[in-house]
Amino acid sequence: MILCLDVGNSEVHGGLFNANGKLVFQFRKNTKNVNSSDEMGLFLKLVLRENSVEPTSIKKISICTVVPGALHSIKNACLKYFSIRPFVLKAGTKTGLKIKYNNPLEVGTDRIANAIASTHMFPGENTINVDLGTATTFCAINSKNEYLGGAIIPGLKISMKSLVSNTAKLPSVAIIPKQFTLGKTTAENIQSGLYWNHIGAIREITKNLKNECFSKKKCKIIGTGGFTRLFEGTNLFDHFEPNLVLNGLFLALKLNS
Description:
The protein is an alpha/beta fold. It is built from six helices and eleven strands. The protein is globular and about 55 Å long.
């Protein structure tokens, strides 16, 4: 069994793969609670046992993170509770990609993991990955496996928190899909604005990336991340893959074994 951990700004998104690359189950944990190696190690053992998996069946662990402060605790948890030195996706590891960033070290490893997975899913095709998490990120990868760059905008939760923290009366609301733009309450106004603002941004940014990167040639738009399913039925994406980053971590581990 192979344990993959994507340590994001808001959550640790974990997944367990069998040797054939099938995702057996997944779980999430608030990143703010990753305070020590003991807390993380005990949590991982507990979540495995609750899913009828013995921790001793874990043979390898693959990690990516955009939170440097959490990496030390998680690496030590792997060593202390699983006796495994984890693979950490970072600059210098094999990815199968050619990074065309001005400074390749700046690219978030979660975005690299997404790109590894999308090129594996659609070999020889142009792809744009849209990851809806704490931030919403856009990554363009061409048919030659060249990572060209992309765009970053505030995610849905960040946008809502910005409204709440910078206004006197606007409340925090549930983030939900809205069929109609017109809201009849303050909460509905905020929900509509958040939802349709994101739809507009995704449409415009992906359209511009297609024109700039691929000269309007065909490309697959892939939606991933925790908020992706809110946008089913909007025709924003050609393919939904909520676990793209976990798949990329599994593939990165295989590339570097």
